[in-house]
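Budget justification note: compute hours in this period were largely spent on complex prediction jobs such as the one shown. Inputs:
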Amino acid sequence: MSSEISRLRVKTWICATVVVLSNAFGDFFMKRGIPVSAQLASPWQYIGALFQPWVALGVALLVLWQMSRMALLSWADLSYVLPVTSVGYVVVAFIGKVMLHETITPVRWAGIVLIVAGVALVSGGTAPRTHQPADVPAEPTVGATA
Amino acid sequence: MKWLLVAIMVSATTVGEVLQALGMRRHGEIRDFRPTAIGRAMALLARNRYVIGSIAAMAISFFAFMKLLSLSDLSFAVPVSAVTYALETILAKYVLKEQVNWLRWAGASLVICGVALVSL
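Corresponding output:
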């Protein structure tokens, strides 16, 4: 059973890392690629913007973000995933500092410390899954007979 | 108008993410990460009622967020969205039946305060 717990923990860490990095870099490339809102007057210009290389990369990363988040939630608790993936706010702050030379104010540093402490409490102190996978019935599908 | 949009955004995000967690749990643990297996899982999930509901709720939340950004600053919109962490943790306990012990409550509380500070 302990090997099952460590297997789930390693898998959770890998998947959570993909969730956090794809979200942070997806947002970054979207912001980098999207033109200022004044140039996005019509729906066609929005659709056109999606085909600019940086925006397309951002969208691809955000698709990866949602897919990896769904995979993570297929075995991990929501009350575990929520605090642990919030480390993304910290990653975004550091991306801003390193790549866009934004300054991190003392208030933001305080926020970063609180988020990291919260993530450490939840990820270090609790198991990713507390519910029993055998408890849930088979998934309902649209069009399936009751 | 601003607070109505906040209410719509927060409730739609909360409902969407809880439905997503419910749908994925019903689907069961994803063990096979090869492309064909992922394709099969996506085909199944596209017919999962909870997942379909979660996508609809997240779309509502996304457009409410966009509208809110046109009325207020990002430094208002992002901190108020941290409220969803509290609501979703409560629903995780009572709807998803997760064991939310004091470590998780403490962690969620720290994260809520931290997110509010980071986005100020």
